[in-house]
Amino acid sequence: MFSHFFGHYLLEKKHITADQLREVLALQDSVRVKIGILAIDAGYMTAEQVETAHRLQATFDMRFGEIAIGKGYLTEDQLTDLLSRQSKRHLLVSQALADKGIMSFEDIERVLAAYRRDSGLSEAEYEALKENDMDAVAASLARMPELGDPEVYADYFALFTRNLVRFIDPGIVIRRAEKVVATPFGHLVHQEMDGRFKIFTGFSGSGPAMAEFAARYAKMPMDGFDDMARDALGEFMNVQNGLFLSKLSNDWVELELLPPECQSDGAIRAVGVAYAIPFSLPFGEFTFFIGLGSPIFN
What we know:
- Helix content is 50%, strand content 19%.
- By secondary structure, the protein is of the alpha+beta class.
- Strands 1, 2, 3, 4, 5, 6, 7, 8 and 9 form a 9-stranded antiparallel sheet that branches.
């Protein structure tokens, strides 16, 4: 998950191209994170020190860690700590970038620091991202205090992201929730849950992105955003919200699930409180919506 978040950041900042991002993401399972990248990430060594140690490896038949300790760049305890981190997956993209010569160690050091600063994540949230803890990351980014019980709605979005990973694609990148009043959309699938209170949820995207989403969920090709695609998207919402209501019923909250609907080329306007959470998948950009009451469509 960190690889996709960090890779998307590199792409947005134009540090790499879309083709390069696809290349390094495809290499993730074939690379091993080396001590140099781990040392930069941990703040134990600078990129210049890593470069120096690599140059010395070309002269002396010694391991990177031995050279780093000999030069005074690392302590024995720090090397032991780094060796214990080699199974961590969050630096695979950084290693692949270095292996392919797309970015230097200095570039990687700089952009990792910039991403940590620009992400807006707390220390705990950033650590959760590095540990690929999807539920913790989704819950932290989906803070929507004005909806009522924040844990209920954070749990809903965590379930939504798990279903995206399970049914659509693991390469999801989430942005922080924002309160909205009116938002335009290209194509939108949404559904209401009604009872003691009313909730609406849904997500929007471009025609090609929504069609690809539907194709992946239905496991069959789609000829654009047609009736078949709408049915598949509606079924996804039924599954998502059915699972959510099942959990609510265990807490003695019963809501009725209304039929899903699709809208095109309009704007969604909240009557009560509503939030939007932008998210990206490898094939497109989307916006997730959740709010109280029935929305108005223009």
